[in-house]
Amino acid sequence: MPICAKCNNDVSKVYDCDHTNDQEYCTECYTELHYYLTEEK
Ligand SMILES: [Zn+2]
Ligand SMILES: [Zn+2]
After folding, report:
1. 6 lies in which domain range?
2. Origin, by domain of life (predicted)?
3. Distance from the CA of 17 to the center of ligand 2, in angstroms?
4. pTM > 0.85: yes or no
5. What's residue 14's pLDDT?
6. CA dist., res. 18 & res. 14, Å (int)
7. Backbone phi, psi, residue 16, to 5°
8. Could you tell me the distance, in angstroms and rounded to a whole number, from the CA of residue 29 to the centre of ligand 1?
9. Ligand nearest to C-alpha 18
10. How many domains is the chain built from?
């Protein structure tokens, strides 16, 4: 099982993109990251 780089939870699916610095994030952390990114603009 992949582990989220942010919350260290075992999750079934992880995501990564330029914003995560090549680290794998769970759905929740990934969504939260992009939520803040879009809010800043
Ligand atoms: Zn997470
Ligand atoms: Zn992104």
Report:
1. 1-41
2. Archaea
3. 5
4. no
5. 97
6. 14
7. -145, 155
8. 4
9. 2
10. 1
Ligand 1 centroid – CA 41 distance (Å)? 23
**pLDDT the model gives residue 38:** 87
Write phi, then psi, for 18 (nearest 5 degrees).
-55, -35
| Residue 41 to residue 12: CA distance in whole angstroms | 31
CA 16 to ligand 1 centroid distance, Å: 11
Q: Which ligand is nearest to the CA of 19?
A: 2
pLDDT in 10s for each residue of the chain, 41 residues: 999 999 999 999 999 999 999 999 999 999 999 998 888 65
Rounded to 5, what percent of the chain is helix, strand, coil?
40, 15, 45
Tell me if residue 29 falls in helix, strand or coil: helix
